[in-house]
């Protein structure tokens, strides 16, 4: 199964593709949860030079902390775990190292992503102790920008979720010092297009 975080971040936060702690990867799905609203000003003029996906991701350099909330498939309970993220842009200005720390009940988990963007595609590789390296590609698009630190990015790819073929959509929204990553799933084996909530990460900048 894919690693818990790779969106750009990510947070490629994106932060990638399964959303819960390791022992719950195949048994959890996220839902929308009550969280601070992140609103981009509709009155703000559009920038003369729109930000690129690469520029948006590199603007996240620094450390972030917050929480990941998801629903357990088996119990249907909402679960929340603390998450820390460090984003480091390499000297080439293109390569980003993302380091995620989160608490799987009973032990700490560390996930490292290496990501870059070219021609509308985010490419990444993930390292995590005890697992083979994983690589992935996601389409990435800036869909909304009010300022250089207020934007929305969409990442999409096809993979699997809960052992079912699925499209994954991650919506990353930055509003200055707050970053929200909402992951949704559209299962491909049910004959219809229906996006359901997978998980939600809310982070605040620490520096």
Write the SSE topology.
Layout: E1 28-29, H1 53-58, E2 62-72, E3 78-89, E4 96-104, E5 107-118, E6 121-128, E7 134-147, E8 150-161, E9 164-175, E10 178-187, E11 196-205
Antiparallel strand pairs: 1-2, 2-3, 2-11, 3-4, 4-5, 5-6, 6-7, 7-8, 8-9, 9-10, 10-11
Please identify the structural class as seen in this structure: mainly beta
Strand/helix succession: EHEEEEEEEEEE
Low-confidence parts lasting 5 or more residues at pLDDT below 50? Answer: 1-6, 8-43
**Mean pLDDT across all amino acids:** 81
Biggest pleated sheet: 10 strands, antiparallel, barrel
Report the sheet-strand fraction: over 45%
- What does the radius of gyration come to? 16 Å
Write out the strand line-up for the largest beta sheet, numbering strands in chain order.
2-3-4-5-6-7-8-9-10-11
Helix content: under 10%
Helix count equals 1
Q: How does the overall form come out from the CA principal axes?
A: globular
Number of strands: 11
Separation of termini? 33 Å
């Amino acid at each position: 199964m894919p690693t818990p975080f790779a969106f750009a971040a990510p947070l490629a936060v994106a932060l990638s593709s399964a959303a819960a702690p390791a022992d719950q990867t195949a048994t959890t799905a996220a839902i929308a949860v009550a969280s601070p609203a992140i609103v981009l000003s509709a009155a703000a003029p559009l920038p003369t030079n729109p930000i690129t996906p690469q520029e948006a991701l590199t603007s996240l350099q620094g450390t972030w902390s917050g929480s990941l909330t998801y629903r357990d498939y088996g119990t249907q309970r909402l679960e929340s775990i603390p998450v820390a993220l460090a984003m480091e842009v390499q000297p080439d200005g293109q390569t980003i190292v993302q380091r995620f720390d989160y608490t799987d009940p009973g032990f700490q988990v560390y996930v490292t992503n290496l990501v870059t963007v070219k021609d509308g595609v985010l490419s990444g590789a993930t390292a995590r102790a005890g697992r083979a390296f994983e690589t992935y590609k996601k389409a990435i698009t800036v869909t909304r920008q009010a300022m250089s630190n207020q934007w929305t990015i969409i990442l999409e790819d096809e993979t699997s979720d809960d052992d079912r073929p699925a499209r994954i959509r991650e919506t990353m929204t930055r509003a200055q010092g707050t970053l929200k990553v909402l992951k949704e799933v559209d299962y491909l084996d049910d004959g219809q297009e229906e996006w359901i909530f997978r998980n939600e990460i809310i982070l605040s900048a620490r520096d």
